[in-house]
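Follow-up to my post from last week.
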Amino acid sequence: MKIGIVCYPTYGGSGVVATELGKALAAKGHEVHFITYSMPVRFVDYTPNLFFHEVVVSDYPLFDYPPYELVLASKLVDVVKYEKLDLLHVHYAIPHASAAYMAKQILATKGINIPFITTLHGTDITLLGKDESFEPVISFVIDQSDAVTAVSSSLKEDTYRFFATKKEIHVIPNFIDIDLYQNARGTFSKETYAPNGERILMHISNFRPVKRVEDVVKIFSEVSKQIPAKLLLVGDGPERHKLEMLCREMDICDKVRFLGKMKATEQILSIADLFILPSETESFGLAALEAMAAGVPVISSNTGGIPEINIQGYSGYLSNVGDVSDMARNALLILKDDETLKQFKENALGQAKIFSIEKILPLYEELYEKVM
Ligand code: GMT
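User reply:
Got it. Predicted complex:
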């Protein structure tokens, strides 16, 4: 099949999923064309049947707001026509699904029928969907898509709750390349950050308020009062300054390291003992799945799609959003002795295998066949 993928090329989960999906489809022999404004961050290994088409918005003095969506639609028309694509798969409703809809209408006037599949990732529904400045467009493009997928059952339910649509939504969960995480073992040394054998707690995100990274710091502070521990914070974003202030206030700066944005997170995850994801809302929680694929148990909130991945008392523990005392207690339950930690680590890896790419990729391929 010849597939066009549209996504945000940045560090967000939806872009990561789209890029990994495209790479895996290309590895299986499909021809995959990424169409977006810059090279996706995980687009690293070139293969002959993987292509990138850059969407460039000209800087024109009249534009206070660059019309990215229109330029994207024009680019989609061009790529579909000249590369003879079979279908478009757009990740994140705004503005990708609306641009695909427009491209589809333009191509129809030229006698070309291009189906498009929209994958809903989370904030396009749970945050933007609630915003009335986007709602009519999101509702419309959900209905107009040839197929719609959501990354968890929870997100599917949220979509029906927030939008008056009866469109069938296929749940295709996010996936993980287990080998990538297992092969990364040994690339980082635990001693670098925990020279005295301390437990390593980790959090990876874009440090937006929805991630509640302050809770991570508070949980860590409780844990480190009981056992020797270090906290590694990977990523960056708007909450960073506040977090640094909180660490100073709590007098734990010597135990906390801000590592910034890292591309190959599988490497740093290989030295973690525990992953913390206390998000306010999370349609799936890809970061938790990535941790589990590295054999790292997860302390999380019990919100959105996270309970579909993290299993209470098995791969980790779940608590109500904001209940940092419970999360700290649960962290200590896992970290209290080597035997318990070893068991949780094995369970986490076993749980991640349910979402291995080999199992999930055929679900997308089946859907592609169906819409074509
Ligand atoms: O919240 C993020 O980190 C970014 C965001 C995105 O769209 O890039 O993530 C959403 O999509 C991910 C991939 O499907 C999911 O794993 C995240 O749970 C989801 N984020 C939220 O729902 C807050």
